[in-house]
Design a protein that fits this description.
Subunit structure (chain B): Forms a complex with SecF. Part of the essential Sec protein translocation apparatus which comprises SecA, SecYEG and auxiliary proteins SecDF-YajC and YidC.
CATH superfamily of the largest domain in chain B: Multidrug efflux transporter AcrB transmembrane domain
Number of strands of chain B: 23
Strand order of the largest sheet of chain A: 3-4-2-5
Strand order of the largest sheet of chain B: 2-3-1-4
Keywords (chain B): Cell membrane, Membrane, Protein transport, Translocation, Transmembrane, Transmembrane helix, Transport
Helix content of chain A: 55-70%
Number of domains of chain A: 2
Membrane topology (chain B): Multi-pass membrane protein
Shape of chain B: elongated
CATH superfamily of the largest domain in chain A: Multidrug efflux transporter AcrB transmembrane domain
Distance between the termini of chain A: 27 Å
Number of strands of chain A: 6
Family (chain B): Belongs to the SecD/SecF family. SecD subfamily.
Subcellular location (chain B): Cell membrane
Oligomer: heterodimer
Number of helices of chain B: 15
């Protein structure tokens, strides 16, 4: 078994974590999340050209057709163009945009058109923020129930750390944050928690089994014992996510990216943040002992 | 320590696996592109002769037919080639003429014996098969205002017939207000109305003269809103059915929204026009010389700009009295709508026309529309909807004889307009105006592309995980891989059985599950490796599975909690992700713990081993 002194290097880990969190918060405050259509409301039309168009020409054509307040970007392939309009919806907007773009006789095909009402977007935004908070709250309660409230605190901080940095990542690079990315963030909460619980489970077991009160050693042992598992699972998960990122297509590009970043963060935080937090919240051996009744939960083995 | 399962456990696991394979199997049979033909009204049917005509038409157009079947007056023609699907629809639709609905369809090709046990493939979401998605919002305020107006006019009538005079009557803010000359009239009115209208709570208000305020109770407001949404749901279902879309979805979402999903539909403009249309008809007499000025109303002609006619204010009947409607062409080839009225409508029409032979009767076309404009209020941009109503005369003709419950309307622009009007008259009008709150169109090529990409990611992801596990855990990696394959089978089977909808994020959920599902095995194997120090091999295997169990359970329950929350806030595709993630967690706990244990027991249980290939 490897024997790495993780806890001994926790100061360095603190600095990295705090630095990343500060950068993330800064990016969120200064640049903000670039919310996708799901949340902002508005109209977006994806079209596919037979030959890659010049984006400036596309913009000119839209301007000439009388559209105001639009943005044009390529989407995946350079023959695919995504037009975003902040205007309210109009019947057959897809056809109108196509009409404008075909003005010069180009061959353009409608791939998809979406419209989200401003009210729906607002509502979804509130709902999503609330959902994220509820998710964090519920899992914290579960951990408090199954372990102990100090563990719940540690898990919560570690999850918050992952979520903030992940959101900051999206803000910093101006990546589109849409509903699928939100789903990814929630999945990251689930994944990171999964990791954290494995480490906590081992810490709990080791505290009960050993007579020692040297928590740092116990934590180090627990992390080292689970390290091989942590890396294996992160490894397989990252493998499939990379497959998704490169092969899954543009519509879930940001989704896979969020998960990849999240899994890396989750792995880091369950090794460093989650365990180190237990030291900060002053976990003591007595918090878990006497633990006679806990054995009841070990019944019903497969 | 022998590590053996009792026989029944092996059999149970085997049974679950076999059931899983059977129910997952239909997904391997690709769906056939097909067209579905059904009778649009009771006078037509799809029988042998129609089938023969369809076949002939398709043959002439050079479209290869794979097979055909007909059940309950609906024919399903499976095509060899998906790219000819819409061409097939067009030629068949043209050949059969009106009276038939021809729709695009993706037909299951599950073999008979699998259908026999109720096995069917997963439903594909719109992002995988193309189509349109609408989120409609029912205008609740308008529904309430309408009800208030109806009640207010009935109340005025009641007061008048009792000889109680009122000075002023207004409606608004969920209330009807009557102002009287004196308090005595008010108390009389209060007594009268209190008896008849129990959905209102009554109160006196003396701020601007003696006023009676009749406020809708909260219960009444809820009832009206429920009624409006449910009525609209019914109407929308009728309309969508008329559109001839296979497997449409029309369902309520939340208190005031309705989701409409039309797979395979590409012409959004038509779909939107019909789903959102609020057109109706009114039949009125033309004003005669004896009609007093305040009983007259002038309207423009719809298709003849500049021409106007004055009509009587009284409406004979509205389009709500239409029981069926169809289109045809008159002798000179102009489109017309043939209308059948219901019983009361027929007698009202008969009474009104009998007494007015020789006068002109107008058909008024009414459409409720809204304009959305952005206004700046308190420095913030707010969208405001301004409802307006368009009324235009479509025909004005002399009453030759008393009309019964059957007659024709002419004066329509085009066959399309005639068809849409008859459709709207058949399906009924909307109880309250609706607005499009959200709309998505996904082209069919994007859908297929998404499926291909999704399947590719699943395959590549699976192969990589399988390889990883073999390299890392050798013999036990093989066990984990078998368990993972069973897991994938069970997950697909569970989704097919539950009728869950597969979306692109749903496929992503499957891929993610593949990566995370091996976690349970990884935990166990790592633990066995650890426990092998100082224990016998069988003991290590036993303890490994046992010790890892609580960790596996806790870790998966929490992830499941998050997935459930995601399910409750997500919509459409994201819900699909939450569903696959949750089901994946359940199946992976089963396979990671039970199946892999069974395989381990079978492979090494009961043997005295010196070394474990792990």
């Amino acid at each position: 078994m490897t024997q790495i002194d993780f806890m001994g290097k926790r100061k360095a880990a603190y600095i990295i974590s705090i630095l990343l969190t500060v950068i993330a918060l800064g990016a969120l405050a200064v640049k903000g999340l670039s919310l996708g259509l799901d949340f902002t409301g508005g109209t977006q039309v994806e079209v596919s050209y037979a030959q890659a168009p010049s984006l400036d020409e596309v913009r000119d054509e839209l301007g000439e057709a009388g559209f105001g307040n639009y943005s044009v970007q390529t989407f995946g392939a350079d023959t695919d163009v995504l037009v975003r309009l902040q205007q309210t919806f109009d019947e057959g907007i897809g056809e109108q945009v196509l009409g404008a773009l075909r003005a010069q006789g180009e061959q353009v095909r409608l791939v998809r058109a979406e419209y989200v009402g401003a009210q729906v977007g607002d509502q979804l935004r509130d709902q999503s923020g609330l959902g994220m908070l509820i998710a964090l709250g519920v899992v914290a309660l579960y951990v408090a129930f199954r372990f102990q409230y100090k563990f719940a605190l540690g898990a919560l901080i570690s999850l918050g750390h992952d979520v903030v940095i992940l959101l900051g990542f999206f803000a910093l690079f101006g990546l589109d944050f849409d509903l699928t990315v939100l789903a990814a963030v929630l999945a990251v909460i689930g994944y990171s928690l999964n990791d954290t619980i494995i480490v906590y489970d081992r810490i709990r077991e080791n505290i009960r089994r050993s007579q020692s009160s040297d928590l740092i050693r116990i934590f180090n042992d627990a992390i080292n014992q689970t390290l091989s598992r942590t890396l294996s699972t992160s490894g397989t998960t990252l493998l499939v996510l990379l497959a998704l990122f490169f092969l899954g297509g543009d519509m879930i590009h940001n989704f896979s990216l969020a998960l990849i970043v999240g899994v890396v963060l989750g792995t880091f935080s369950s090794i460093y943040v989650a365990a180190a937090m237990l030291l900060l919240v002053k976990l003591e051996r007595e918090d878990l002992i006497p633990a006679k009744r806990e054995n009841a939960a070990d019944d019903g083995m497969p | 320590m022998l590590n053996r399962y009792p026989l029944w456990k092996y059999l149970l696991i085997l049974l679950v696996f076999i059931v899983g394979v059977l129910y997952a199997l239909p997904n391997l049979y690709p769906k056939d592109p097909a067209i579905q033909i059904s009778a649009a009204n009771s006078s037509t049917s799809v029988g042998e002769s129609e089938l023969a005509r369809i076949n002939q038409t398709l043959e002439q157009a050079g479209i290869a037919v794979k097979s055909q079947e007909s059940t309950d007056g609906t024919a399903l023609i499976r095509l060899e080639n998906g790219s000819q699907q819409s061409a097939a629809r067009d030629v068949v639709s043209k050949a059969l003429g009106q009276g038939y609905t021809v729709a695009l369809n993706l037909a299951d090709s599950t073999p008979q014996w699998l259908q026999g046990i109720g096995a069917k493939p997963m439903n594909l979401g719109l992002d995988l098969r193309g189509g349109v998605h609408f989120l409609l919002e029912v205008d609740m305020d308008a529904a309430i205002d309408q009800r208030l107006d109806v009640n207010a006019s009935a109340m005025r009538e009641a007061l008048r017939s009792e000889g109680i005079r009122y000075r002023n009557n207004t409606t608004g803010d969920n209330a009807i207000r009557f102002t009287f000359a004196n308090a005595e009239d008010r108390s009389q009115a209060r007594q009268l109305l209190n008896r008849q209208y129990n959905e209102f709570s009554l109160a006196n208000d003396d701020e601007a003269g003696p006023t009676l305020v009749m406020m809708l109770t909260d219960q009444a407001v809820t009832d009206i809103q429920d009624y409006a949404v449910n009525q609209n749901l019914t109407t929308l279902r009728n309309r969508v059915n008329e559109l001839g879309v296979s497997e449409p979805i029309v369902q309520r979402q939340g208190p005031n929204r309705i989701v409409v999903e039309l797979p395979g539909v590409q012409d959004t403009a038509e779909a939107k026009r019909i789903v959102g249309a609020t057109a109706n008809l009114e039949f009125r007499l033309e004003a005669s010389d004896s009609t007093s000025a305040d009983q007259q109303q002038a309207f423009d002609f719809r298709n003849d700009s500049g021409r106007r006619a004055a009509l009587e204010r009284d409406v004979i009947i509205t389009g709500d009295r239409v029981s069926s409607a169809s289109t045809s062409f008159d002798d000179s080839g102009r489109p017309q709508v043939n209308i059948n009225l219901d019983g009361p409508g027929g007698s009202q029409m008969n009474r009104a026309t009998r007494a007015n032979i020789g006068r002109n009767m107008a058909v008024l076309f009414i459409e409720h529309k809204t304009r959305t404009r952005t206004v700046t209020r308190d420095g913030e941009q707010v969208e405001e909807r301004v409802p307006y109503t368009e009324r235009g005369i479509i025909s004005l003709a002399t009453i030759q004889s008393a009309l019964g419950n059957q007659f024709r309307i002419t004066g329509l622009d085009s066959p399309t307009e005639a068809r849409e009007l008859s459709l709207l008259l058949r399906s009924g009008s909307l109880a309250a105006p609706i607005y499009f709150a959200q709309e998505r169109t996904i082209g069919p090529s994007l859908g297929q592309q998404n499926i291909d990409r999704g399947v590719m990611s699943v395959i590549v992801g699976l192969i990589m995980v399988l390889a990883f596990m073999i390299v890392r855990y050798k013999g036990f990696g093989l066990i984990a891989n078998l368990a993972l394959t069973v897991n994938l089978t069970l997950l697909i089977a569970a989704m097919s059985i539950l009728g869950a909808t597969l979306t692109l994020p749903g496929i992503a959920g499957i891929v993610l599950t593949l990566g995370m599902a091996v976690d349970a095995n990884v935990l166990v194997f790592e633990r066995i490796r650890e426990e092998m120090r100082g224990r016998s091999i069988q003991q290590a295997i036993h303890t490994g599975y046992e010790r890892a169990f609580t960790a596996i359970l806790d870790a998966n329950i929490t992830t499941l909690l998050v997935a459930v929350i995601l399910f409750s806030i997500g919509t459409g595709p994201v819900k699909g992700f939450a569903v696959t993630l949750s089901l994946g967690i359940l199946t992976s706990v089963f396979t990671g713990v039970m199946v892999s244990r069974a395989l381990t027991n079978l492979a090494v249980g009961g043997k005295s081993l010196k070394k474990l290939w792990i």
